[in-house]
Amino acid sequence: MSAASDAVRRALLRLGATDTAADQLLLTAQRLRALAQRSGVEHAAATDLDSGYAAGPIAGTADDVDVDVLLDQPRPDRRYILVHTHRSNAGFSDLDASVLVANRAVHAIGVVGHDGTWYLLAKGERFTPVDPAVVARLVRAVVVAARRPYLPRVASGSISPDVAKRRILHDTWRFLAPRLGLEYDRVTPRKD
Q: Taking the CB of residue 57, how many other CB atoms lie within 10 A of it?
C-alpha cells in the first residue's frame, strides 16, 4: 500500500469506516478514477461505512455527476460515503456540500482527483442539520474571500487557474468545515 493510500485509509477509519469499508472504498475510488481518466467523464459510487457494500459506479459528464440515483438506494439506518471524481483535482463545490448536509444517511463525501488527491468531508460530532441552500451560499461567499490573494497571481501567470482553484477550495474548507461541524481532510499523492 502506498503512503498516500495508507493516509487515506487512516482518514477513512477516523471518519468511522470499518476496516472492510475502508479497503472497499480504496478499491472503489481506484476504479472510479481509472474510469474517469479513460472516459473523460466523472464517476461516482456510494459505499456503506459499515459493510463496505458499494453501489455504483455511475457516470456523469466531463464536469459533473448526478448522484441522485445513488441517494435513492441508501437505507436511512445506515451510514454512507459518496465518492466521486474531479478531473480538476480540486476539492468540494457548494453542490457537493449541499448533498452532504441534505441527506441524513450520507455521513461523508469524498472526492478523488485524477491526480490521486483525496478530499474528505464528513459530519462531525458537532454537526447539526442546516439548510443546504444556506451552506451553498456560505461556500460561495467564502470562495469569494479566499480567492482574493490568488487573483493577482493568476493574472501575472505565477500560478495557473487550476492550481489557484485547488488552493482556494482547500482554504475554503479548512476555514468553513469546523464552523459547520464538519471534518475536512486532504491527502495528496507523494511526488517522488
A: 19
Asked if 124 and 136 touch (Cβ cutoff 8 Å), the reply is: no
Contact (Cβ atoms closer than 8 angstroms) between residue 186 and residue 117: yes
Tell whether pTM > 0.85: yes
pLDDT (tens digit per residue) in 90-115: 999 999 999 999 998 899 999 999 99
- Strands 43-48 and 54-59 come out as antiparallel
- The answer to whether residue 88 sits within a structural domain is yes
Residue range 178-187, pLDDT digits in tens = 999 999 999 9
Question: What total number of domains does the chain contain?
Answer: 1
Which CATH number goes with the domain that contains 10?
3.40.140
- What is the full DSSP assignment across 82-103? EEEEETT-----HHHHHHHHH-
132 domain-assigned? no
Say which DSSP state 55 is in.
Answer: E
From start to end of the chain, where are the E strands?
Answer: 43-48, 54-59, 80-86, 106-113, 118-123, 182-187
- Domain residues for 49? 3-125+183-187
What is the spatial distance between Cα 183 and Cα 179, in angstroms, rounded to a whole number?
10
94 within a domain of the structure (yes/no)? yes
Question: 169 lies in a domain?
Answer: no
Other CB atoms within a 10 A radius of the CB of residue 6 amount to: 12
